[in-house]
Amino acid sequence: MNNALLLGPIFFPLGGAALGILLVRNRTYQQMLGLLVGVLAWLCSIAILLANLNGDILTYNLGGWVPPYGIVLVADLLTSLFAVMATTVMAAGILYMLGCRDKSVAVPAFMPLFLCMGAGLNGALYTGDIFTMFVFIELMVIASVILVAISDNRLGLEAAIKYLFISAMGTLFLLTGIAALYASFGTLNMADIARLLASGNRPVLSQAAAVMLMCAFLLKSAVFPFHFWQPDFHTAAPTPVHAVLSSVVVKVGIYGLIRITTLMFTDETPLIHSLLLVLGVIGIFFGSLGALRTYDAKRLLAYSTFGQIGFILVGIGWGAPATLAAALIYAVNHSFIKSALLMITGVIASRTMTKTSRLSEIGGVGKSMGFTSGLYLIGGLALAGVPPLNGFISKVTLVQGGIETQQWLTLGLVVGAGTLTLLYMTRTWQLIFKQEPDEKVQIKPYGDSILAPTLLIGVCIMLGLFASPLINLALRTVDQIGDPSRYIRAVLGG
Amino acid sequence: MNTLFAIATGIMFGMGIFQLLRRDLIKSAMGFYILFTAINFLFLAVGAYDGIIAPYVNASNQMNEQSSDPLVQALILTAIVISFGSYALLLGLIAVSSHRFRTIDSDNLDRLKG
Questions:
Q1: Is A404 helix (H, G, I), strand (E, B) or coil?
Q2: How many CB atoms lie within 10 A of CB A18?
Q3: Is residue A301 within 8 Å of A243, Cβ to Cβ?
Q4: Cβ B43–A160 below 8 Å, yes or no?
Q5: Least CB-CB distance to B94: which of A161, A182, A299?
Q6: Which of A125, A168, A295, B52 has the fewest CB atoms found within 10 Å of its own CB?
Q7: Which residue from A190, A186, A185, A187 is spatially nearest to A213, judged by alpha carbons?
Q8: Sequence spans of domains, chain A
């Protein structure tokens, strides 16, 4: 079964990047091309999701080679859910870039690199071959490192060097895991590995591979022992890049974790789950407390991402189908809320003279910006989980799942830490929008466009008011990935 | 042969990790590259069980029994390209940072804090 639709989300951005390099002399055309390509990728991913809803798992054999020999692109509901989330935020990021006044956005290579990052992100989600996943993750990492290195913030360079070293360690783990898997099974196709693992053939080396892959994915998601790079790297990034990095790029690791626990290493899953539970709870507390004591509005949101990833890990760690569905809902909702909040913070920062987002310097900058203030408040309340916004839906489904699985200790910790979110978001909102501005502070009359965050906040409100489609989708996804044999049959046939 | 591979890979990993942990960023970047070469060794070792000749089909369209595994060599090629690109990028970043921050000591690159 070859479905050429699967090529869209990967090759539209890649082609757009190549064409964009040819159009360096004309920035308007380049930006229009970027927007067109972003929207096309978004439409493709939605079309794939709709095709998935009919119950099919779509595959595309690249170059006509039959799996497990060739590289195969696979889209089941889990992939499609994450890809729709990723392409939506990517398209919003490109839209933000059109109205962005940063110097770095005017660099000719900015748009092609941004599209490369998107192609890497989508490719890592859609591929059914673990080595191709490594290639796409590297494409994403290298593009994002360059984007952060050319940031307006001079310290972006320092952050880029740090991240390149750290991500090299992640790559090292991933490659060692892939080598161990290849030594054990002689194949790199995830479905084929899953088939061989399910047939009871379990060499010791395959368990080492599970550990290695887990380390790599935890590092990509910035989970507790590997988290230290994340606030540095994300704070220094240009706003549109930060919005994508902090919301969807960190979800690649989550996707990988869900994929290896549900498809490949199903026997080791209870052990992995208990580990994820501990790491998740630590992440929630570290992230929330870090956000409370930090000095910079963008850094605060980066720490908050660290905490919110913890909630998702707890959802996966509880291990029941309902809690896994809650984790998926949480991941999707968090992406939209966090990217919107980051873009709004970028809009505020663009109104200051030095384009800083230090809390000591942006106090009161938003005093006269009523609409932006409202958007930030809605986003903050959504992040904290106040009804009727989408953050409330994700928190409620998570707590319901926790009650069903009767994990009272972790449930109490999670609910308690959830209130910290409300604390740091309202505190920042008051500081930026309610305080009288300092007399020395000069505010520019113009700044970045507010269009993209407005649309994303609109999505957040819609997902809060009409939550049942997303909840049903997540439940169907969990139902589908709960039976790995369907994935294996779709890829390998028979 | 396998013992030799195992020892060589182990030595490469050790050298790479030692270099990577140095304070000098350029030495550290060299460690980065040595580690990737060590990974390539590991891949080669994985596919090198009984192959001693190049994997071509012979006149009767059959694979020779002693041909080596071609897939790992394709993987290594890809990994070399990627690691070489990352290494070049890393050295470029270090060169710019030596101008901008006047240091290549990783202990002095600590302005992002909090």
A1: helix
A2: 12
A3: no
A4: no
A5: A161
A6: B52
A7: A190
A8: 4-492
Kindly state the tokens that stand for A397. 């489904």
A353 pLDDT more than 70: yes
User: What's the mean per-residue pLDDT of chain A?
Assistant: 88
Give the separation between CA A388 and CA A154, rounded to whole angstroms.
40
Closest CA to B114 of A153, A232, A164, A305: A232
Mean of pLDDT values over A21-43: 90
How far is it, in rounded angstroms, from Cα A394 to Cα A414? 13
pLDDT at A1: 58
Q: Does B112 touch chain A (CB under 8 A)?
A: yes
Give the span between the Cα atoms of A330 and A247, in whole angstroms.
12
Which residues in chain A (152-171) have CB-CB distances under 8 A to chain B? 154-155, 157-162, 164-165, 168
Tell me what ipTM this predicted complex has: 0.90
- Interatomic CA distance for residues A68 and A62, integer angstroms: 12
- Residue-wise pLDDT for B45-86, tens only, equals 887 666 667 777 777 777 666 777 778 888 899 999 999 999
pLDDT surpassing 80 at residue A137:
yes
Asked if B42 and A179 count as a contact pair (C-beta separation under 8 A), the reply is yes
Domains and CATH numbers, chain B: 2-52+66-108 (1.10.287.3510)
Q: ω into residue A108 within 30 of 0, thus cis?
A: no
